[in-house]
Write a structure and sequence with these properties.
Elements lengths: L3 E2 L8 E17 L2 H13 L4 H24 L4 E13 L2 E15 L3 H4 L30
Parallel strand pairs: 1-3
Antiparallel strand pairs: 2-4, 3-4
Length: 144
C-alpha cells in the first residue's frame, strides 16, 4: 500500500491503529534571475506568474516526497493532519515545509465514522465521557 495523505485528523474509510511520529519534508528554493525579470515585467501588465506557479508546484511535490520517504521508513500506512508552511530564508530564497502525523491504519470503519466527534488516537472506551451537546456545535468545513 502506498502512503495515503490526508489533511484531516483521520483517514476516511480507515481505522487508525497506531500513531507513529511527526514526519516532515522541506525544500529551499531561490528565484531564477531570468524568470524574476520576466515576472517583474508581467507584474506591470498583470496576470499569472506561471514561472513562480511552476516553481511552487515543484517545491510542494519535492517536500511531500521527502516527507513520505520518512513515513515509509517508520512503516506508516498514512500521514494525517497534513499542513504546509512557507518562510523566507534569505533575499530571493524561500522554504516550503510540509508536515503531518505518520500512522498505521487498516481499511474499515474509521473511529471518526463510528463516533463523529471522537479522537482517532483515543480508544473508544475512553471517549464515552463526551456529552450530547457536542452534536449541537457547528463544525468548520474547509471545503465549503
Amino acid at each position: 500500500m502506498t502512503v495515503q495523505l490526508s489533511n484531516l485528523e483521520h483517514l476516511p474509510g480507515y481505522q487508525i491503529t497506531e500513531r507513529l511520529d511527526v514526519v516532515y519534508g522541506s525544500t529551499v528554493r531561490s528565484k531564477h534571475v531570468g524568470k524574476d525579470l520576466f515576472a517583474g515585467l508581467k507584474n506591470i501588465v498583470g496576470g499569472e506568474l506561471t514561472a513562480y506557479t511552476e516553481l511552487l508546484e515543484e517545491s510542494r511535490q519535492e517536500a511531500i516526497d521527502r516527507m513520505v520517504v520518512k513515513a515509509e521508513a517508520l512503516g506508516a500506512d498514512a500521514i494525517v493532519g497534513l499542513r504546509f508552511s512557507t518562510s523566507s530564508i534569505a533575499q530571493g530564497a524561500s522554504e516550503l515545509f510540509v508536515y503531518g502525523t505518520a500512522v498505521k491504519a487498516i481499511r474499515g470503519q474509521s473511529s471518526s465514522q463510528a463516533h463523529p466527534h471522537s479522537d482517532p488516537y483515543i480508544a473508544p472506551q475512553q471517549q464515552t465521557a463526551q456529552t450530547a451537546s457536542d452534536d449541537d456545535l457547528p463544525r468548520f468545513n474547509p471545503f465549503g
